[in-house]
Amino acid sequence: MTQNENLKLAQRGAYLSLVVYIVLSVAKYITGYVYDSAAVRADALNNMTDIVVSIAVIVGLKISIKPADKNHPYGHLKSENISTLFVSFIIMFVGIQVVIENAPRMLTNEHHIPNFITIIISMMSGVIMIGVYAINHRLAKQTKSSSLDSASKDNLSDGLVSIGTAIGLLFTQFGLPIIDVILATVLGCLIIYTGFGIFKDSIFALSDGFKEQDLEEYRSLVQEVTDVREVKNVKGRYHGSSIFLDVTIVVDANLSLQEAHDICDRVETHLEHNGISSVYVHPEPNTLNEK
């Protein structure tokens, strides 16, 4: 599939997450409000932040599909990174609000035992989110979408959090109502942690950071190409879900310009077949390398 086809397919996973998060957040918030469970309300707020994340992924993917123009010669692929950076601030803000609301309540004696239905809702929510994770994880692998892969990990995290909430709420049924408030505070901290993680990843990509282990992997791929004497340098940039590479290779100094060009073409083709969106290859003669 082409890059645009992959981006469109990745959008389906984001839409799936969006719909599920809307349904679950409404159901959990109503349940938490009616049956007075701080933990379930906090979990609902966590899902509400995920609604924003899903929307950001969708918007980012839609903008990324736009073709390159004279002002954006590399395309609009970094729109995805910009949108997730914005979302990270929203997520951290919500997490801070949850902690501020619930942490002081741990010091009071006013605790309420939530209804057993809150446990059922939380457990069902967890199972559903793990199912969404399985679907999105498969789509992310198929489309090589980094944003959808991150979203799928968030799906799994949310599923495990909901199941953990259900288990924690079970303890409230045995005369430990304070567990509800403690869980809400912990969930608030988890929301902040999630937002900060997204913030770090976004800043890393926007500042042209690149994982060293990935560079080594791509260096190895280049070395697999016939007639490449040495891989002198590999630089990479993340553009949303896409990867751009600049590669400097060493070739035989006795080759003609056309032969050196053909080697560069083979390197580009090999890397593109391994998921790289754009490759620039610069050849150098081995005589320069020997001096």
Describe the structure.
The longest helix has 32 residues. The mean pLDDT is 84. The chain has 291 residues and is mainly α. It contains 9 helices and 3 strands. A 3-stranded mixed sheet has the order 1-2-3. The protein folds into 2 domains: 205 residues, Alpha-lytic protease prodomain-like (Up-down Bundle), CATH 1.20.1510; 74 residues, Alpha-Beta Plaits (2-Layer Sandwich).
What attributes characterize this protein structure?
transmembrane; membrane; 2 domains; Alpha-Beta Plaits; mainly alpha; three-stranded mixed beta sheet; transmembrane helix; 9 helices; transport; elongated
CATH fold field value of the largest domain = Alpha-lytic protease prodomain-like
Strand content: 5-15%
Main beta sheet: strand number and arrangement? 3 strands, mixed
Tally the helices: what do you get? 9
Order of helices and strands: HHHHHHHEEHEH
Q: Spans with pLDDT under 50 lasting ≥5 residues?
A: none
Structural class: mainly alpha
> Could you say what the CATH architecture of the largest domain is?
Up-down Bundle
CATH C-level of the largest domain: Mainly Alpha
Report strand order across the widest sheet: 1-2-3
Q: What is the share of helical residues? A: 55-70%
Total number of strands: 3
Q: What is the overall silhouette?
A: elongated
Rg (CA only): 24 Å
Mean pLDDT: 84
- Measure the end-to-end span: 44 Å
Number of domains: 2
Pfam families: Cation_efflux, ZT_dimer
GO molecular function: monoatomic cation transmembrane transporter activity
Organism: Staphylococcus hominis
Membrane topology: Multi-pass membrane protein
